[in-house]
Amino acid sequence: MKETEEGVVRSRFGKKMDETALMFSSSLDHDKNIFYYVILVDMAHILNLMKSLYVSEEEAKELLKAIIEIRNEGFETLGNYEDVHEAIEAKLIDKVGDSGRKIQTAKSRNDEIATCLRLFARDRLLLLMDSLLELRRVLLQIAIDKKDVIMPGFTHLQPAQPTKLSHHIIAYHDMFSRDFERMMQVFRRINQSPLGSAAFTTTSFEIDRERIAEFLGFDGIVDNSADAVSSRDFSIEAVFVGTSILLTLSRIAEEIILWTSEFNFIELPDEFASSSSIMPQKKNPDIAELIRAKSGRIIGNLTAMMSMYKALPLTYNRDFQDMNSLLYEALEISILSTGLMARMLDKIDFKEDIMDQKAGKKFTVATELANMLVRKANIPFRSAHEIVGRIAMQENASPSIDDIDRAAMEVAGRKVSESISKDDLEKALNPAHVVEATSGTGGTSEEQIKRMLDERILLIEEDEDKLSDIVETVSKKLEKLYSEVAGVID
Amino acid sequence: MKETEEGVVRSRFGKKMDETALMFSSSLDHDKNIFYYVILVDMAHILNLMKSLYVSEEEAKELLKAIIEIRNEGFETLGNYEDVHEAIEAKLIDKVGDSGRKIQTAKSRNDEIATCLRLFARDRLLLLMDSLLELRRVLLQIAIDKKDVIMPGFTHLQPAQPTKLSHHIIAYHDMFSRDFERMMQVFRRINQSPLGSAAFTTTSFEIDRERIAEFLGFDGIVDNSADAVSSRDFSIEAVFVGTSILLTLSRIAEEIILWTSEFNFIELPDEFASSSSIMPQKKNPDIAELIRAKSGRIIGNLTAMMSMYKALPLTYNRDFQDMNSLLYEALEISILSTGLMARMLDKIDFKEDIMDQKAGKKFTVATELANMLVRKANIPFRSAHEIVGRIAMQENASPSIDDIDRAAMEVAGRKVSESISKDDLEKALNPAHVVEATSGTGGTSEEQIKRMLDERILLIEEDEDKLSDIVETVSKKLEKLYSEVAGVID
Amino acid sequence: MKETEEGVVRSRFGKKMDETALMFSSSLDHDKNIFYYVILVDMAHILNLMKSLYVSEEEAKELLKAIIEIRNEGFETLGNYEDVHEAIEAKLIDKVGDSGRKIQTAKSRNDEIATCLRLFARDRLLLLMDSLLELRRVLLQIAIDKKDVIMPGFTHLQPAQPTKLSHHIIAYHDMFSRDFERMMQVFRRINQSPLGSAAFTTTSFEIDRERIAEFLGFDGIVDNSADAVSSRDFSIEAVFVGTSILLTLSRIAEEIILWTSEFNFIELPDEFASSSSIMPQKKNPDIAELIRAKSGRIIGNLTAMMSMYKALPLTYNRDFQDMNSLLYEALEISILSTGLMARMLDKIDFKEDIMDQKAGKKFTVATELANMLVRKANIPFRSAHEIVGRIAMQENASPSIDDIDRAAMEVAGRKVSESISKDDLEKALNPAHVVEATSGTGGTSEEQIKRMLDERILLIEEDEDKLSDIVETVSKKLEKLYSEVAGVID
Amino acid sequence: MKETEEGVVRSRFGKKMDETALMFSSSLDHDKNIFYYVILVDMAHILNLMKSLYVSEEEAKELLKAIIEIRNEGFETLGNYEDVHEAIEAKLIDKVGDSGRKIQTAKSRNDEIATCLRLFARDRLLLLMDSLLELRRVLLQIAIDKKDVIMPGFTHLQPAQPTKLSHHIIAYHDMFSRDFERMMQVFRRINQSPLGSAAFTTTSFEIDRERIAEFLGFDGIVDNSADAVSSRDFSIEAVFVGTSILLTLSRIAEEIILWTSEFNFIELPDEFASSSSIMPQKKNPDIAELIRAKSGRIIGNLTAMMSMYKALPLTYNRDFQDMNSLLYEALEISILSTGLMARMLDKIDFKEDIMDQKAGKKFTVATELANMLVRKANIPFRSAHEIVGRIAMQENASPSIDDIDRAAMEVAGRKVSESISKDDLEKALNPAHVVEATSGTGGTSEEQIKRMLDERILLIEEDEDKLSDIVETVSKKLEKLYSEVAGVID
What we know:
CATH topology of the largest domain in chain A: Fumarase C, Chain A, domain 2
CATH architecture of the largest domain in chain A: Up-down Bundle
Strand order of the largest sheet of chain A: 1-2
Oligomer: homotetramer
Helix content of chain A: 55-70%
Strand content of chain A: under 5%
Number of helices of chain A: 19
Order of helices and strands of chain A: HHHHHHEEHEHEHHEHHEHHHHHHH
């Protein structure tokens, strides 16, 4: 809590706040996440105050210099205040006296914090999109490198049908593509400025909300001022997209854990494994386990935020404050986990031989066998399914035409051997043939894999361009702010 | 479980499934939600099988007639099966014999359920968007009707500044506008067809995935077939947008509960209130309380779905099934709650006199008084804030210029009376003046309210058009399906 | 809503409730869960009213006969009302006229629903404890039957050290033992009667709260009447113990899924497996997957209930109603899942050979090898760990004394061969020896396993006795109620 | 990560861990919470190793001195390691060389972390129980001081019946009494030692698990060693009891927010209120809002932990690590929030006049009026309810006997005036009489309030004794440890 004798804030009450209560209610610990955004907002705000003549050019110069000093001194030199806004205001007053007491003209902590949260979320979403693009690139590269590697595909964690590693990996890529799209859309709703809303009705000072929004790199403003300070849907949906990404990451993580276990499909890179303090032979997939855990943690963050937000009347409530650190943490987790997964996957060694060898085990070709009976012997699918089911019961992974005839007699009352050649049977039992045969759009055939890869290479390029455009637009606006600030100072 | 002797499904095992296990694992109870979608899928699938010559025209006719019969007989006449897919297949076989056994050719329950879930979610999102438009219209109408009604605005549930009811209501409208936008975007990701993915690799039968997607009113297909059957992000994000809506609904609900309580700002319509079994004088806001509760419930649905989905390896896992009923319930709740809120708000009686009378109580004009001191007497804002703070401590809600001078002397060491006219003071203390003065973009002034209302009337019209376009596009595609079905049958 | 002309309830308002609002707010769908408890409460209440002379003996007789009729007619014959309390009151009035209009004397829906919820939770907890005892018995029987079966134990899902199946299974038993203890404790808090609290202040009618509590089999009363009607901590903690059980069930379920997959440790019984609609060879662990999913679902139930309950002011709020169906579902899920797991485990076939054969693979004996070096060659543990780590790097699962010497030289600068006999090495490398060597309290040695089994056999017996005692106590109290009812009727 | 050249841990792999991966996986940030417990465990462990002759008395002395040095140097002087266990081991080796390399003999991080978590949770539960006792004392004192203050009681936040502030406050006390009981029970399950379980099978070194448990103040051991290292139910239920407390705290917080708002029942102490940066008249209930928010946050912690724990196979998984900081935070929040609420309530000023004056407003006496009609005029309750309902419709808060007669004629076809005296009516309409009349057990009458207060004074004393006993028992055991340590060192 402030020690300056003026008592910048909280001057009204007879008694000072209870020490524990102050500690409990202070957000300063977490405010380091938004320190630079508060500085940024103050810069733009001072320019605005100057334009509206609420501070003179001289005062503006003084204030801007001081605010830059404060930035350079860093977050750690702020004193012990309720929050970063109070701390910076006190420091400003300390540095420049009376003109510092003008900084909150036409501004409230309500619109300021909403603005800083959006700036934070905006920048973290940009970083997250960048990480996600990297992850998608890594996935695509694996799919390209291993495009012909055959492996067993699973349903219910049981070997089900032969598939290709590339097909499997593209599935993950596509999930993340949708997350990228979600982020782009969420970004547009987040990158809107609440500044100028003051407490919640705007202010009787003349302030150009659009201009300050432009200075801060926003796409526009949150129009209604009560909405601007009392909505946190932007924060919740930012965490939701993070959660969406982590849910898919947790699925890859689970597969990494399984595949380094009895599945034995991969070898972890040393850099992403740990050993044991007691069991010297161990090579543990800790990073994958922790990413899996983080998906649970971010579910908790999202749940907590929603539970806090529920049923809060308009406009500002202090409960909002406690949502902020959950936002900071959630986006941090998302960026870290996405980046780590990309780097870990990039170095994983896929054991192609073992995958290939297991692709046909446990009679994974059964479906194709049934399909062949439908096509060649004109058996209705359900009956073909039963015929093959009987063969499967006999644990005969490699049935002869006689075996099939026996089962067909039982199920359909007729033999099928006349319609089936030995070649038909061999193909149906061969995983390499089967993955070529499942050639529907989006399937495992060579042609489909190639098409999917080609399209996704282009898609990633497009998404890179989209992201670059955004970054450039934001940067240009901020540069304009910096240049105007420089113009006043010099 | 089916008792027909063919044993359509599960024929392979020696022993039948445990009765309780079967009950536990059956989804039939909830499958009524997708019954018509299964029928729809079967129609489109039969046409596809016919085109690919897997069933003859005669068989297709037989099958289509039977599937329409099954639809007309209704969900309730299905027997006791593991799920609706099995039940319908069994009924088809019962009706048309061997050609019924062909219905699962080139299709798996994996792609079928993913398709039906998307069709369900699509239609519910359309209904929800429709309800949300209605709610936005009701909100806007209230804002138009009450556009000049002054009321106290709250922060921390304490009277803070005078505001207008219309401004308050527009804030809610804008939150729902963003939800509408979210739904539109989610809709595009949902309205994609997984059909033809079969188990997860597509199928070796020739099937035109794009054609069947068109028949079902989809915008396109989910390309990678493993992604198509093993992703449930679409389901989770559909529930998330419902949750987003309900969180805002819970805030209005909370205000309705408060405003019918000691706030006394509104009178509930009889149709949306209940009495007590023991206290005859009570008029309770039960509907608002239940909507508030539903926001908690849907948080639970979302949490459960994410927790279930977390760390599931590819491709299909039975856990997915248990997510479905949470989707059904969540969207049902969202539609009902949104519709009810619209109808309840439409009939609420706002007590304008009481709002107006409380608008200036508890010194809500203090901020404007401070602002006036800044502008007229050139006091730095922080000092003006302190001056007014001292007045507020004296519980003097209507200070004289002398009072202000006294406080200004203490805080700033100078009087302000020379700079301030009686008229200045009167205006600053008058809530009606204050709400006009806060005229920043998105503020409470008459001009700003008018502008916001005008823009939102147009926005709602645009959103209505967007929704109509979607409904029309889907309908036309479905009509084409029906017409092709009719062409085969007749 | 009732259509009888008296308008039993809601008589005060000018307009009837909105149809959708009524549907939305009706709890009737879920009230079937408490139907018999409402009947029970009414019985006890009528006896109480008679004792206090609020109804005559003749009226009591009439009312009791009618209430038994209503019970026999069943829940389905109740009309369309807001809830089961209203419905039964209306039916009573219908059957016996004016004396029916006395049934709510000294009673409110507030205390009635709290009472019925506690009766429901009490009975379900008893069922759940019974199921849990069965599950513990099954687990213990497996541990007894397989007490010497050696298997690899896992950390991070990597083979870590040899262990015994019985030891592994006892771990699960012990987790459930704690859940049993939790349930016993929760039971005591739940089995308390709120009845007689009326709306929340008790009533001015003379009512013997202790007597009616006795009639209903409660252990006592919830003293403070506001607490009695406005607390739902009992409901939340009942769901929490269910969640605790399901979390552990989900872990066993996960292992069942893994162990039927590439681990290949078990064979599922046909009765608890399903096949595929398209892949005839599949044998899927659906029941295990669904139990795993249910743990996610019940997390959602608990989260929803807590989120609804949060920040509700005293006393009754309609939000409470929406918590009820989550309670019903959560306890139902817990009982079903526990029972199914018991029956499934009972029939699982453990592949002892495969377990045994894998027990020593992947150098799981490394820890014991290091320990032996500590004991025999006086190498500090951390150095021994490093020595063995070097051997493990060489993928030499069966090192010679020379290998060890080489590594010891590198790490500790000295050989160890003099201190180690060939027998020492063989033992350390032999999983069967290793599991005997880890003979600390609670370890895997034969003696420890035997002790643990013996103690748990006794513990289960004790827990059975505790449960029987409770059931008997409750039953006796209810019998007294029935007998008094019979006394009045005859 | 460690910089010592020996490479204490993780020596086996060719490549060092990726830097970001290391940062991501390090728990060191949060390990400060358990630093002193690790020291404690090491002390006890060293004594155990000495007793079993794995270290000499001289080595033990050296190690104990070093471990005390490390404690005194503090957590902050630990280097950059994966976790606190590694860091301390490295520092020990640094200080005492080879004997330091013996510290992990017969110990694994698996049993060590489980032990430290239980020690942490144990101590925090003791603090929390202490805070909760303080809160209960404060509540009881308010109830004693204000025992006759009448106020309106609410259902659905609508004035419902007159009640007493003391009755209302006792309800909260009783909710917290149950939480205290829960904590006592949870404490018993938590205060059990996993130490000696090593990785999960115990160890082949001779270790006295019971003795070390005694040294650490545990009540006993977690028997099965796999259970001991792979269960986190103790951690989850510790957070659950915290959540249970916070849910009730959030309800009081909500009432504080309401009661300082338009309800106007209380005045907040300055020490627990904040002002506004822009609105100088504001006095905001920030602490209450933040406590309300914390209930949402801890719901998130619990949800996250359960979601992480779900479906983890035995035994240790790295996911467990990420649950720990959620435990630390949850218990910290619980202790802080409970303590703050106690101190805030202690200083709240209750506006007795306003409560009293509002007690009878909005016809809260209606129920008693109906009850009086039942008793005096022998009207069935449902009819009396309707009669009073009609009066309530006329907004006549103070009906005459004529008014009642008119309504009685309409509803019951007869007058009641002959049975009702003026005194009867006056009493029924007088809140002070009504709260005396609701004199059932646990009701609002003077006698009941007195009884409840007396019993709770005793109950708190009993609970204080129970808590003291536990603290003393734990302390004595720890003193024995310290004394043995001193014995070796000196």
